Amino acid sequence: MDEDTAERLRERSINNSDIMETFEPRARQSNQDNAKTGINLSEDQTADCPVLHAEHIQCQENLDQPERKEGDRKTGLQHIWELGAALPQVVEENGAEMNIRDIVELQETGFIVRIQPPGTESFELQVSGQMLVAELHQVLMDHEITCHRTCFSLQLGGATLDSLTELHSIQGLHEGALIKLVEDSYSVRDARLHLRHVCDLLRSLDPADSYNGVNGSSLSYLTFYTRGDKGNRRASEKEYVDCSPPEYILPGCKDRPLTPLQPIRDDWKPLQCLRVLTMSSWNPPPGNRKMHGDLMYLNVLTMEDRELNITSSTRGFYLNQSTAFNFNPKPAVPKILCHSLVELLSQVSPAFRKNFSALQKKRVQQHPYERFAAPFQVFTWTAPHGDHTLDCVRVEETHTSRMGQDKHTAGQSRDWNEELQGCRELPRNSLQDRLHRERSIFKTSSDFVAAATRGAVAVIDGNVMPLNPGEAPHMQMFIWNNLFFSFGFDISEHYRPLGGNAAAHAAAICDLRGVQAYASVDTEGLHTLGTIVVDYRGIRVIAQTIVPGLLEKSQEQSVIYGSNDYGSTVFTHPRFLELLDKTCKPLRIQRHQVLDQNNIPVELCSGVETKGILGNDGRSYILDLLRTFPPDLNFQFSETEEAKDVPEECQSFGYPQQHHHSLASLRPELIEAFVQHRYELYVKMVAQGLSQLEEQSEATEQNEDLVCEPGTRDTTTAGADMEFQRRDLIVKACKAVGSVSDSCFDIRFNPDICSPGVRFSPEFAEEVQKQRKLLWDAAAFLLSNQIPAVRICISEVIIRSAKHIFRTYLQDVEPAAFSAAVSHFLNCLLSSSTCVLDSCSDELLSRRRSRRRRSHGSRVPLLTDSMWARLTPSELWGRIRTEAGDYYHYTIDSENIDEVIEKHDLQRISLLREIAIKTGIQVQLREYVFESRHRPVFGEEDVVNMFPVVKHLKPTATDATQLLQQAQVAVQQGLLKDGYELISQALTLFSSVCGVLHEDVCVCLRLLGRLSYILGEYADALSHQEKAVMSSERVLGIDHPQTIQDYTYLALYCFAGGQHSTSLQLLYRARYLTLLVSGEDHPQVALLDSMLGLVLHALMEYELSLKFLQNALNLTSKYRGATSLRHAHSHHLLATVYETKGEFRSALQHEKEAYSIYKSQVGENHDSTRESSEYLKSLTQQAVVLQKAINHIYSNTPSACIPPPKFSTPSPPAILQQLNLTCGIILIPLSAKEVADLRTEMKGKDKVQVEELENHLLKQKDLRTAHKGQQN
């Protein structure tokens, strides 16, 4: 490749994009992605969206109930959950309808077959008709009986089954059919895969892969807390329940230990089967031995200290007579040939046979969700110090001869672009076609992300030769495993107009979001590149698939659509216009014209930087999608911008402001929120206008009836006038909300409004100004409507600013000093000590330099003399404050980290967690003493590893997504069972496409658990929620906020199911994780403490219960207010515990507070107020009885027998009712009429009426257009 081509290629590949960083969102994907690739489900308990049911309705705030009439009370009340929070209203899309019968068949086509392994008895196995034969092969490789076999085929009636055939389509395969497992001959590839599988089995209980972030392994600890309480227990069985929590979980404790994050599990204790299993030094077999079928040689050291040399041949495995220094491939005694390596080792080593059998029994006892590999690797930010062990598979995989090869295709390279594009071109007509297509896309995307991540790490580690080795390191490009890699730096000042290196770094993420958006729309015939962004050791790497033929010519010769020089030269092409026009409506992109270098208008359906290329494979590719979403004008400072054009909302916040780069754009979530807001205004305007027209029409008809005789009125003219007025209403409403159409609501944005170098024709000046105003309206909406709902988190500003500094800090660190440099940075950021690290533990001095020091008396330069080692805590804090002001426009007044931690009540351990997750640092699992002023907190050994931080596309199942949307609508209308069935069907499709370890599967499980709980099916709720928790742990992380919330709801379901001890342990775990992540000063802690107080009350641990309830009361007062209904409920909970203890004075005091709040907030006639009043009377009576008894005892005067006071004991149903109230469950009986009225209201009459009018006007417009066409 010549230099010019390489330069152009660099410009193309780096030209990806990122927007200004924002705080970490709860939502996985943008609403833009929801239509095809995901669901954005809020889990907030205080959502406003109600859920209706035939007999009852759930309130948006569990205690803020409206006043009800006595006559409306019904019997048979049921629990109702705040499903409005978990299931927001969604507009059902018009798309291809799926055949529900097909989905039911997917769920019901399971049957039992018999498997006959060689040399052993047959066994039964439950299979699915939709399962491929290849998937059945994988199931058998995991089964306890056949797990040691890998190289076999399956036969039915003597015929070998095709691996890509679905079981239901195999003739003769029915209930009870016998499938024979037939041993096949090995190839070298088969032998290597067999060895890998055996090694995986031997370490199946070892969490090392989870700590190291390899092989799709990740941590899960749920069974550690749920295995101890299997049956129902009464609260009175106190001797069986250990209620005392660790000291660090109690309210008010400031200790935040780290080691409980990953507790020691007994079932993870390794069962060693072999001392050593490794590849022999006699590999590869010589030619004469290949003629005998030898494939490779292995060395084994058994637990009996017996050294074995094993030959892997085409027929199986046997012992040979070789030694460490003598090659003798002849079979050794005993002359046993086994098809499986496990079988051979079991024959020659009794210890192996015993331990391997015990190991497999433990392995199969694990929950499948704990064993399955996750499709995308999850990394843990902390890990214990582990011993490094011999591993022949690991040695082979890291060998340089296999760099870039897939583990299952040794010696081969995959054509990633052809695989990805080929999957997208698969048919999508039927449900089965779509499932097969999406399953293929998901699997290929998962493999692509794993391979590209490995490649990016290899590039940074220097294991890949650059295409242009003569260039500066940051300008180099790489091709590895048919993938193209480039760095996120500004090459040749390509990004200078946009902000230089800052823009180049930001560009990658913006481009990735653009690729996600176009992949979500999924337009047939339009192709995007496989893309991921990897941040590793301070360098951003962009990995992309390669457009066929692009490397053979310059990009200027390849681009037939878009611009390669910021609008100086612009191309268009009818093929790309046709394809991109289909994406304009879902992506809200306005079709527009720009001027080229000859002042000729050029029509575009995307940003001008978007490039269209025809590959040598004939496919239409688009790339450089960094302008897919509209710019955020708040950060597009322009000296030519007039103050009158900037909305007052923006000016009041000091916007527009100069940002580091001009690629700041509006997130898809904001765009959808803004469009929804405008649509509500539009519907309101049209509905009000139509109402006024109807009133005027009725008044006119009445007047005409009085003046004119019946039958003489001109109805044709009146109808035409009414039609004109209706159309005028739509036109005015469209203009008011900024719609690009004058006949229906359709908001779109011009992505080139702020693009440098782009010019528009003067005749479109008014249109451009309207588009700019629309962008300013969206920017103002962000500040006035969205930002006030977000609490600025000072810790996020500090950590994100520190991350920016850390990125450039690491780029100057030599590889031998990474651990020292990272620990030094963490010390400067988080340590209270001013001490610095003196030297590196692995520092070595060369002999030559040592002699020079002796002869010349000069000091040998150490690693700690580098630039990174000169960083001081004060210097770092100053740079953080500067970065926070420049990038986030946030002023930090504190002079050092200690001051800001004390001022804002932050936790150093939480800050450590955040910086580690955001930068890929893995620290040692131990207790860190941050307050020490005499020694640094972190040493070199505390930095265990650095992982890549990977951002990639998230493909999913479109049909399942539509089903989930339909389920949302059904549940919102009160059809809970229908919603349950739809979610079950969605779960089936998601599992079929993505596997069980996926975020969308977790969403379905979580919702099924909640619906089961509502319907009173506690066992089903427990089963679904347990899977949801394990899925969250495996996919999101053991300390992710969603995982914590899932633990909380599982605790509720456990209590309802009678597992009180397990419920308590789960709540303790949730509280510990919350304390670790955010500290005690958080509203989530108030919820957890209220639940803990109730469960402890049920277990009659009253003192502990009071501690947690008192803390919940204090936090509720702080975050909800002292006069809130939640605060009243907290007082009531305390009163019930004090009553049980017999401390009626304290109980009366708290219940009086509760009554006072209820009375002031909802009035004397409200149910809550009346119930509180009745409870006060009961407490008063009990207090009087108790006082009389006490007075009688002290008086020593004989009198009539005074009955002793009755101390109430907590009953599980009563506690469960209070838990439901605390968690957002409420019982509200409704009359049938109220339910009908509310359902009618939910359907939205105004919206239906406006949509019907729009459709009518659009049809008329189409008819007029067609009529004009016929006349011409």
TrEMBL record:
Gene3D superfamilies (alphabetical): Hypothetical protein (hspc210), Tetratricopeptide repeat domain
One Gene Ontology term, aspect cellular component: cytoplasm
GO molecular function: mRNA binding
Biological process according to GO: intracellular distribution of mitochondria
Record-linked InterPro entries: CLU-central, CLU_dom, CLU_N, CLU_prot, GSKIP_dom_sf, TPR-like_helical_dom_sf, TPR_rpt
PANTHER family per the UniProt record, alphabetical: CLUSTERED MITOCHONDRIA PROTEIN HOMOLOG (PTHR12601:SF10), EUKARYOTIC TRANSLATION INITIATION FACTOR 3 SUBUNIT EIF-3 (PTHR12601)
Regions of compositional bias (Basic and acidic residues) in chain numbering: 1-13
Organism: Lates calcarifer (Barramundi)
Ranges for domain Clu: 394-636
CDD domains the record matches: CLU-central (cd15466)
Region Disordered, residue ranges: 1-34
Alphabetic keyword roster: Cytoplasm
Name this protein carries in UniProt: Clustered mitochondria homolog
Gene transcribed to yield this protein: CLUH
Domain of life of the organism encoding this protein: Eukaryota
